[in-house]
Please model this.
Amino acid sequence: MPSSIPISNLEHWAILRRVVDCGSFADAAQSLKRSQSAISYSVAKLQETLGFPIMEMQGRRAVLNGHGRQLLAEVSPLIDGLVSIETDARANAGAGPLQVRLLVDTLFPKVWMAKALKQLSGAYPGVMIDLQETVREELRADGSRPYDLAISLTECSAIAGERLCDLSFVQVAHRDHPLANDAGPMTQAHAARHLRVAVRNLRSADRDPSLRTGKVWAVASLESAVASVRSGACFGWLPEQLIAEDLKAGTLVALHIGAMNRSRVSLDLVFHDAERANAPARFFAKTLRNICGAEQELA
Model:
């Protein structure tokens, strides 16, 4: 009767995958905080257990052969599944309910966040959410602001993340605003006589030097800026994704002030520790990617 117990060690497969991801035994050893000899022994032991080679030499580098690539592709989901099980088990062992700690820049559209949170609560009804909003705060790895997942401006993050979304900004005003009724392009000096709303510290969407002068109403969030412009009290840079219906209905109109009429701001998704992130955090990250992708396709 065939044995139902695997002959290979899943840890050895995980080490092999790290070697492949890092590109060398030395880099894998540094990443895993193990000696290079221990890494080499693990891969050699795996090949010995299997009974056939899964790596070959190309010059001075050891790379996966065809069998190795196929097997590692099939084993990788098992590695990820076990890591997920162990992570959740540690979280449940003595820490109480599962928790996801979020740091979210106020530029991230709240309606998108609400959609993501609703899906998370549906998939994990008992999960606790600790959401802290930031205002263009530099994301650091020193533990000063504990988090599992963060959404940060690309230009404010000192930690490598993945691009989550791009917000396209356009200068607009309410249709009854004096600037909306001026025919043709306007001079910057003329616009500076009117109250402008500005999202605090949003450098990417406010690089026009002329707009640093004049009367400015500084707010912390996009929603506050949108509400201010909708009221007719001021004009300003707003993300097209949040005012698409206003533009379509003609409630808000695009302005042509100077040479710079559009701008773009990028937001990154950053894990504090992707390998140790619990299942709700990973689910939430995937949900955010899907929502942002769908919203940007509609824009």
User: Anything to note?
Assistant: The radius of gyration is 26 Å. Residues 204-211 have pLDDT under 50 and may be disordered. DSSP finds nine helices and eleven strands in the chain. Residues 66-94 form the longest helix (29 residues).
